[in-house]
Amino acid sequence: MFPERAAWSVLGTLRPEPAPERPDLLAAPVAAALKALDPADAARVGVAEIDPALADTAAFCAEYGSAMDGAANCVVVAGRRGEAVRYAACLVLATTRADVNGVVRRRLDARKASFAPMDDAVALTGMEYGGITPLGLPDGWLLLVDAAVADAPAVVVGSGLRASKLALPGALLAALPGAEVVEGLARPA
Questions:
Q1: Which residue in 149, 26, 125, 126 sits closest to 76, CA to CA?
Q2: Low-confidence residues of the chain, pLDDT below 50?
Q3: For the chain, domain boundaries
Q4: What is the CATH number of domain 3-177?
Q5: Domain named YbaK/aminoacyl-tRNA synthetase-associated: which ranges (predicted)?
Q6: φ, ψ of residue 22 in degrees (nearest 5)
Q7: Rounded to whole angstroms, how far apart are CA atoms 174 and 116?
Q8: Which helix (H) or strand (E) holds 25?
Q9: Alpha-carbon span 138 to 150, nearest angstrom
């Protein structure tokens, strides 16, 4: 096994492949983001096909033997101040939840913050709901990464589609364009 691929074991019983070699398992914005990465970094991203009915984290982990503390959820938050709306994607371990009304709201400089409506999140990201991932987010969005995700040797995230999952090092997620590692972003679930 290639050393950079050892982290792909976070996908449990699945047999991942190099993500750049399987654009058919990626949403278009995700495939474009992988192409924009340094080839050495892109080679560290694995992808595995899954049953789309099992894309939700708990179902995925139960079916494929992936640990919940090795999975990261990407949630889209809309922050409002007057008529202005700002979006952020928040990446937290699946065993925690994002502090939307505290840390995220303050970081967005918003009076009110909440999970973005599903239709808005899908339309703005070009990804499927339940598969939204930090790779390929719209330009100008904040990507808030909990420190526990950034420190993880590997995590499972969406691929932009419900029919596959990605595995990659937390440090690579923390180094994505627009990413900001935030201590205290996550709270216990």
A1: 125
A2: 1
A3: 3-177
A4: 3.90.960.10
A5: 52-173
A6: -130, 60
A7: 22
A8: none
A9: 21
Which one, of 141, 135, 138, lies nearest residue 156 by Cα? Answer: 135
Provide the 8-state DSSP code for 150.
Answer: H
Token readout for 90 is 């928040």
Residues 127, 75: Cα–Cα separation, whole Å: 12
pLDDT score at 3 = 53
Q: Which residue has the tokens 């364009």?
A: 177
Taking only the tens place, the pLDDT of each residue in 150-187 is 999 999 999 999 999 999 999 999 999 889 999 999 99
Model confidence, pTM: 0.94
Q: State how far the Cα of 6 lies from the Cα of 154, in Å rounded to an integer.
A: 9
Give the three-class secondary structure for 40: helix
What pLDDT score was predicted for residue 4? 60
- Residue 96 pairs with which residues in a beta bridge? 188
Q: How many CA atoms lie within 13 A of 129 on its CB side?
A: 9
> Following CA atoms 102, 149, 46, 5 in sequence, which dihedral angle do they give, to the nearest 10 degrees?
170
3-state SS, residue 131: coil
Q: What count of other Cβ atoms lies within 10 Å of the Cβ of residue 147?
A: 15
Side chain identity, residue 149: V
